[in-house]
């Protein structure tokens, strides 16, 4: 199938995000000559961007099953680009394994973020992860990020209490993240303050 991405903006860089499974795709701009790309990484720079304002990017699968996640077209305008790297139901212990892999670290470096936000707690609370284990996992994730992005700012975020009456309170996780932020000289945002001091102030009903 042919996929076309049309923009009216001037672009200085175009990146494709895709699942690394060695499928082969090809692309062109404005119907020009094709360039083939083997999807063996995760982030791919698509060179040959036409000069001037606007273009049509055509993508076509050559072989294999290509799983495409999106295209990022950056220009000269000032703004903010936000990428959400998440998976429903995932916990910190699972992300420790992900962020420790060279593939994940390489893709993070390719995204080149100026700020990385680590926002966890709810799923860890569901599995009754202790404060000490939670803290250890946060430290490992921060270390894995800093391995490839030593100059990137990192913000740890803790969600507020959710009224589910689970054995480990969100406040314990907030304390753990605060301790890590102090030790690693990074930032921590505890959302409890913005919701209320007690769940009864913002809970259902």
Poorly predicted regions are none
Tell me the Rg in angstroms.
Answer: 21 Å
With helices defined by DSSP (H or I, 4 residues minimum), what is the helix count? 6
Overall outline: elongated
How far the N terminus sits from the C terminus, by CA atoms, comes to 49 Å
Main sheet overview: 4 strands, antiparallel
Strand content range: 25-35%
| Structural class by helix and strand composition | alpha+beta
- Total beta-strand segments: 10
* Order of strands across the main sheet: 1-6-3-4
Q: State the order of secondary-structure elements, H for helix, E for strand.
A: EEEEEEEHHEHHEHEH
Name the average pLDDT.
93
Q: What percent of the residues sit in helical stretches (DSSP H or I)?
A: 25-40%
Textual characterization of the structure:
The protein has 205 residues and is of the alpha+beta class. 29% of the residues lie in helices and 27% in strands. It contains 6 helices and 10 strands. Strands 1-6-3-4 form a 4-stranded antiparallel sheet, with no helix packed on it.
Any chance you could write out the topology, listing elements then pairs?
Blueprint lengths: L1 E6 L5 E6 L5 E6 L5 E4 L4 E3 L9 E9 L4 E7 L17 H8 L2 H10 L3 E5 L2 H5 L4 H18 L4 E6 L11 H15 L2 E4 L1 H4 L10
Parallel strand pairs: 8-9, 9-10
Antiparallel strand pairs: 1-6, 2-5, 2-7, 3-4, 3-6
Helix pairs in contact: 1-4, 2-4, 4-5
């Amino acid at each position: 199938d042919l996929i076309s991405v049309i923009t009216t903006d001037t672009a200085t860089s175009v990146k494709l995000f895709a699942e690394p499974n060695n499928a082969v795709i090809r692309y062109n701009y404005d119907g020009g000559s094709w360039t083939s790309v083997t999807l063996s990484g995760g982030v791919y720079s698509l060179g040959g961007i036409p000069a001037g304002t606007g273009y049509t990017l055509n993508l076509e699968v050559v072989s294999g099953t290509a799983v495409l996640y999106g295209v990022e077209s950056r220009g000269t305008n000032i703004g903010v680009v936000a990428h959400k790297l998440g998976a429903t139901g995932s916990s910190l212990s699972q992300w420790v394994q992900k962020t420790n892999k060279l593939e994940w670290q390489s893709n993070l470096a390719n995204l080149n973020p100026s700020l990385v936000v680590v926002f966890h707690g709810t799923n860890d609370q569901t599995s009754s992860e202790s404060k000490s284990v939670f803290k250890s996992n946060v430290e490992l994730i921060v270390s894995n990020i800093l391995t490839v992005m030593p100059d990137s700012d990192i913000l740890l975020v803790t969600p507020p209490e959710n009224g589910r009456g689970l054995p480990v309170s969100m406040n314990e996780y907030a304390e753990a993240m605060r301790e890590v932020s102090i030790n690693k000289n990074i930032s921590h945002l505890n959302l409890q303050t913005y919701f209320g001091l007690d769940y009864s102030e913002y809970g259902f009903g």
